[in-house]
Structure formats: C-alpha cells, structure tokens
Amino acid sequence: MIDEQFKREVDAFVDEVWEDVVADIDRLVRHESVEDLDAAEPGRPWGPASNGALVEAERMAERLGLQVTDVDGYLGFGDVPGASGPDRHLATIAHTDIVPVGLGWSFPPLEVTRKDGYLIGRGVQDDKGPFVLSLYAAHFFARRAAAGHELPYTLRCIIGNNEETGMGDVPYYLERYPEPLFCFSPDADFPLICGEKGLYRGEFTSDAVAGEKIVELDGGTVPNAVAGQATALVRADAAALPAAERVAVEDAGTGLARVTATGVGGHASLPEGTVNAIGVLARYLLAQGLAGKGERPFLELVVTLTEDAYGEASGIASADDKFGRLTCVAGTVRTEGGRFVQSVDARFPTSTTGEAITARLSELAASHGCSYACRSNEEPFYISPDSPEIEALLSTYAEYTGAEARAFTIGGGTYARHFARACAFGPNDPTEERPAWAGMEHGPDEAISEASLRQALKIYIVSIARLMELEL
Fold it and tell me: Which of 206, 242, 355, 447 has its CA 20 to 30 A from that of 78?
C-alpha cells in the first residue's frame, strides 16, 4: 500500500542519493556516445563510442544492486528480481546514445555543469539524465528487497543504446526475451504520451539526368526535419538573376551561379510555422527559367510536396480523433548518381496506412517523370489512457505536481512504440519557465532543472510501486 510513510521514505531516499545521481549523470555525459557504424564490430554493433556508454551504464547498474545482462552489445538490462520470476516483469527503457554534440555551445558539452539549479551537457535531458533516474528508482526497490520486501514482479531497467539513429536495439532484444507486462520510457514530456503517429519515409528519384541547367541540388540536413537551407548550382549569369525574398545569388565561376534559399527549419512532426527552403528554391528556379525540359517536372513535384506540410496538395491528407492531421515534409534534396533525389517524411494517423501513402506518392512520381520508393513504414502506436497502468502513472504525476494529468499523442517516435503495452512518461516539463541560456534536447547547451529531475525520480518510484500492485 502506497501510504504517507512510504512517500516519506521516498523523499528521504532522494535526498540521500541526489549527489550520487548527479555524479552518475556526469559519468555518462563524458562518453561521446554517437553511433559509428564504420567502426562497428561484434559486441559493439553501434561502434565503440556508443558501447563505452553502455558498458558504463551496466557497471553503474551492477553497483546499484541490479542483476545485469549485456545483450551482445546491442543493449543491456538490470533486474531487481521479483516473485514472478524474470519472464513476468515490469520495465523501464531509456537510452545512453546521443545525437552529435554540434556547434554553438557556451558550456562544455561532454561534462555536467551546474548553473542556477540546472544541469547542462549533452544528454542531461535526452536521455542520460532520465536513464540514471530509472536506475536509481530500481536501486530504491533493490534496497527494499535486500531488507525483505520482495517485489511481486521483477523490475527490469532496459539500457538502450541505439535510440537516436533507428532503435535497432529493441527488435534484437525482443527476439530473445519476452515482452514486459508493461513498460514506460522516461524520454519525453510529462504528463504522459499514450500514442505516436505512424512513421513513414520515402524517396523520389528523377528520371532526368542533372546538368541541363541545374548542375546540382543540395538542401536540408536530415529527412525528418523541415529544410532550413537549400542550394542549387545552375548554368546562369549570377549578375542577371534578380534578388528575391529568402533567396541569395552568387557567382560560382564561369557560366555558373549558386542560388541559396533560406527557410525556417523545424522537426518533421511539428511543421507549424516552418518555411521549407527546398520549396523556396524550387519556386525561384522555375520563375527564373532555371530548369531544363527534363528538370522542370522534378521541380514542379517539389513545389507540390512543399505547398503545405499536411499532405493536402500531394493527395495524402488524413486525420483522426486520436492523432489529428497527418504531416508530411520534404526533408532533403540531393544530387546522387547524376539524378535528383527528394526525401519525404510523413507522420500518419490511424485513418490511413503506409501502403495508401505509397500508392498515392507513386502516382504523383509517375506524373512528374520520377520513380518512387518507400524506405520505412511503422504503424501508429496507441494505448488507451483509461488502462489501469496509465491511470496509475497519471494519478502519481498529478499527486506530485498538482497539475492536470491528461495523456496526449505525438507525431514523434519513442521506444514505447516497440512494445505492446507501453508509454512515454516524462521527465521534461514543457510548461517550465527556463532561463534564456538553457538549451533544449539535441541543441547546444542542453539543460534540465535539478528540481524537475528530483521530482521525476519520486514520481517514478511511486509509480512503479503502484504498477506493482496491479493484477497484470
């Protein structure tokens, strides 16, 4: 029974271990654990840097009293054994890999800096800080088990190591171990994410060979983001090309000009307010006659794809009552093998399918002198917010914060989508007022407040205790 005495015990535990928590976050942040497949080898499938963080995390889990298993370097887990045995377990899953550090940092990215109640460093929010919280939540129960309070279910902390670049670690795990009875991932926002749109990516490739008037197209950084910049190397006199909004032109040598379009970038799942630089560039090239006969249909296709970010112009628009509208962005354009290649990233609700999207975009490609290929397709994930597990987590969040506890859905993707019964649960509070210097996840000066992490650790411990009381 979760009573006031139990919660006082949780409060005392968090006070006792907090400096150790921060020190362990720092230990992980010091690993530049970015995937490097060129250096992959048996036992290190994501490269040595990622594996270094995984090994550090496994040692940490063992020190905190968990029974640790390494799964061939793909990922690992630590158990607090329960009366159910290892096959019937509740789980958390967080990850120790990171996105590249990038530029623009004012603080050392690969160590934890404390400033004005915040922790700063790559991974403090996504997801090394939250991962360490999951370990210490398990440590709380490991200490209680050692004192004679056996858990009804085994508690498993899964240590992911490939979340940022494809989540190839979880399928490897699920081929070898049974699904958790329920699992939550501390790699998101509070209150709780109960659903994620389908994830879809594809590519258009022009039939026409580059070079008639357009020598090269290059735009965007990754397929799952709205392009902030795009360039074209064209056969033209730069001095004869007019200025235009969001477009700059410079001489690129004899008979060549470089046209650069600037947009407003953003994540593919949240395109509201963005301006796609690839679309800006395509419209300028068409308006100035900077496309040959074979190149024009491809640019017209790009204009269609960037007309809106909801698939309306391209004919794939869809919406439902759980997820709202489909989103679709043209993320990158490249010149590969002498042809133009345009990527698309769609996040789709339950009212359509990846197969339907492929069929329509294939028709669109054929009408614009292109071929089309679907590159990935993952169905939407949803768990009812009325399920007892979700209600247990939400009630605990509301109890500790006094805030409204309502589950929501997103267009992004978390580890939760790989499990039958799962959700993403904090620890970030999107309503928190942050100082101007505190960066967000994936950006420079990534930061999260210590107060929010301390509160999240309490929420996680009490939530796990309540999950343990359920008949699963």
Answer: 447
What pTM, to 2 d.p., does this model score?
0.86
CATH number (domain holding residue 203):
3.30.70.360
Given pLDDT bands bounded at 50, 70 and 90, which one contains residue 1? low
Domain boundary among 322, 355, 378: 378
pLDDT of 168: 94
* Residue finishing a domain among 378, 394, 410: 378
Domain count, the chain: 2
User: Which residue range forms the structural domain that includes residue 85?
Assistant: 4-197+381-468
Mean local confidence (pLDDT), 220-244: 92
Token readout for 55 is 């090994």
My answer on whether 153 and 302 are in the same domain is no
The residue type found at 218 is D
pLDDT in tens, 419-432: 999 999 999 998 88
What would the pLDDT profile of 10-57 be if each residue is shown by its tens digit?
999 999 999 999 999 999 999 999 999 999 999 999 999 999 999 999
235 shares a domain with 182:
no
